């Protein structure tokens, strides 16, 4: 994939290699219009270098839009480390990566993502100050999945109010695909709200945990079975691309609202959902609780303050769904327009020079 020929709109894409430690990383900065770019580091065994580049570019653009709609004065970026974290991850590799982050001079702030954890951020922080999502012991926010799940639940409440007139999932059947860090917290919120929860996961250990912790939750064999089942809400909480043409064709839920990034497999899926009367709560809106949590570290972390900010995901989702109806476009398009408007309007103010400020 050619970064220049594809005209992705990115400000900067950096390739980082340290042969001795085995580091092969890509840092993609989509926009710094609102401030330094913030986004996690994904450590994943991509099949090809092109796949790694594609993921970095897509995810960094999504982070710019997510941060804009979360009300953060931060731009969007993302990094991927190409490798198997179970085999390749080590202190030297993470510290080498940290030095590359530091070399960007604060244009990119990193955090956790798939394959990286709070402990990894503490190691990276030995080489750079531009890292959040650190452990509580080091003044960080700790596990960002807590507010990610909380934000998804708030977005789901807003979607339920838009669809059924009440901001609750009580009595609704909610299907959760993926019982990882976020999915587990989401189940807690849903069961407490009185929802009937159905789950699936490729990991048997995750299903065993659900059986032991929430015996009232139903289990199904796989995601296709979950999607085709009689559910009111579908919550994709694993990897991206969960919504493709075939999935939309058999989907029985009236709302899609989940934690996974990049849920739409290709442009146009949002219209397919709308044509079938399915209300899609844009993923980068409802799953922004995690980035709100870790971004709060920049000013000295306060969980209560971060949770208060994450609760506004409910209001933002309502605003987007109302805009979707007013402008006659799918919610994903309405969300994009709102994010682009904020980046353009607020980013423009940086042309007014203030001594000592960017």
UniProtKB/TrEMBL annotation:
One Pfam short name: ELFV_dehydrog
Coiled coil: none
Biological processes annotated in GO: amino acid metabolic process
Domain Glutamate/phenylalanine/leucine/valine/L-tryptophan dehydrogenase C-terminal as annotated: residue spans: 142-351
Keyword NAD carried by entry: yes
Xref: PROSITE patterns: GLFV_DEHYDROGENASE
Family annotation (CDD domains): NAD_bind_Leu_Phe_Val_DH
Active-site residue list: 78
Region forming the signal peptide: none
Binding positions for NAD(+) per the UniProt entry: 178-183
Keywords: NAD, Nucleotide-binding, Oxidoreductase
Residue stretches spanning the membrane: none
InterPro entries: Aminoacid_DH-like_N_sf, Glu/Leu/Phe/Val/Trp_DH, Glu/Leu/Phe/Val/Trp_DH_C, Glu/Leu/Phe/Val/Trp_DH_dimer, Glu/Leu/Phe/Val_DH_AS, Glu/Phe/Leu/Val/Trp_DH_bac/arc, NAD(P)-bd_dom_sf
Gene Ontology MF annotations: nucleotide binding; oxidoreductase activity, acting on the CH-NH2 group of donors, NAD or NADP as acceptor
Family stated for the protein in its record: Belongs to the Glu/Leu/Phe/Val dehydrogenases family.
Protein name: Valine dehydrogenase
Organism this protein belongs to: Actinocatenispora rupis
């Amino acid at each position: 994939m050619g970064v220049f020929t594809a005209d992705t709109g990115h400000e900067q894409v950096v390739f980082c290699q340290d042969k001795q430690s085995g580091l092969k990383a890509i840092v993609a900065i989509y926009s710094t219009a609102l401030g330094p770019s913030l986004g996690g580091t994904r450590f994943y065994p991509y099949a090809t270098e092109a796949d790694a580049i594609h993921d970095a570019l897509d995810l960094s653009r999504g982070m710019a839009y997510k941060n804009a709609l979360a009300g953060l004065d931060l731009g969007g970026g993302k990094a991927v480390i190409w490798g198997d974290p179970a085999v390749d991850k080590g202190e030297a590799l993470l510290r080498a990566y940290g030095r590359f982050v530091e070399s960007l001079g604060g244009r990119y702030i990193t955090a956790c993502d798939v394959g990286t954890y709070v402990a990894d951020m503490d190691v990276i922080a030995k080489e750079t100050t531009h890292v959040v999502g650190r452990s509580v012991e080091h003044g960080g926010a700790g596990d960002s999945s807590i507010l990610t799940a909380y934000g998804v639940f708030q977005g789901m409440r807003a979607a339920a109010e838009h669809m059924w007139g009440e901001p609750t999932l009580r009595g609704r059947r909610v299907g959760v695909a993926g019982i990882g860090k976020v999915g587990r917290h989401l189940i807690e919120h849903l069961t407490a709200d009185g929802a009937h929860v159905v789950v699936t996961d490729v990991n048997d250990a995750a299903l065993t945990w659900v059986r032991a912790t929430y015996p009232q939750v139903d289990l199904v064999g796989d995601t296709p079975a979950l999607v085709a089942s009689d559910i009111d809400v579908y919550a994709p909480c694993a990897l991206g691309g969960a919504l493709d043409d075939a999935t939309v064709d058999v989907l029985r839920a009236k709302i899609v609202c989940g934690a996974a990034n990049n849920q739409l497999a290709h442009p146009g899926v949002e219209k397919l959902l709308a044509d079938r009367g399915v209300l899609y709560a844009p993923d980068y809106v409802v799953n922004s609780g995690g980035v709100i949590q870790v971004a709060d570290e920049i000013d000295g972390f306060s969980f209560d303050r971060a949770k208060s900010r994450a609760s506004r995901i409910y209001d933002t989702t309502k605003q987007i769904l109302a805009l979707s109806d007013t402008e006659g476009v799918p919610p994903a398009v309405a969300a994009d327009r709102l994010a682009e408007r904020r980046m353009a309007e607020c980013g423009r103010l940086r042309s007014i020079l203030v001594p000592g400020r960017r």
